[in-house]
Specification:
With 64 residues, the protein is an alpha+beta fold. The protein has helices spanning 23-31, 47-55; strands at residues 9-14, 40-44, 60-63.
């Protein structure tokens, strides 16, 4: 099996609290691994991750 090339990574930062938003958006933020404000997590760029980010785009900041 050939070695995979380095996957593209995204840095996701929680910039706005999910308090007061829909329960599904709170669960999405938690599923992204974000627990506190201004916490940054790196994820591999996948279609599933892009869908999650689209759901909470108003709460997070995304950097490539």
């Amino acid at each position: 099996m050939a070695k995979k090339a380095e996957s593209k990574k995204l840095r996701v930062t929680l910039v706005k609290s999910p308090i007061g938003y829909d329960e599904t958006q709170k669960k999405t933020v938690k599923a992204l691994g974000l627990r506190r404000m201004h916490q940054t997590i790196e994820h591999v760029d996948t279609p599933a991750l892009r869908g999650m980010l689209r759901k909470v785009v108003h709460l997070v900041q995304v950097e490539e």
